[in-house]
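OP here, attaching both records as promised.
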Amino acid sequence: MDSFTYVNIFETKGLEYLLLLCFWGLFVYLIKYLSTPDKKGNDSS
């Protein structure tokens, strides 16, 4: 009946930091992708 176990927070810190770094890296890439002007010949002047 001992199915409940405590999670050691120090064992999961590394994975959480890796996920956070991946998230911020993809977020910065998304912002750069959305802020760059379109270079597909929009020069219709």
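Record two, same layout:
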Amino acid sequence: MTADETLDCLGMICPRPLFETLKRLRKMEIGKTIEVVGDYVPSIDEITEMMRKQGHGVVSVTTEGRVWRIVIRKMR
């Protein structure tokens, strides 16, 4: 799946990847998708948990080595 936007969080540690994701989502239209890319492993659970709590769709979570990608659909 190709996301509508990509957010590069490589080199960032918690809580910055989450804050950057939330900031970008606020600017997006409902139904659009964003791929968040990072390398700080604890952010995977932090971001996916917050997205579900806020009612956004977590489309996929993939990892390749230490680099992870989370695709999120803005639902509200």
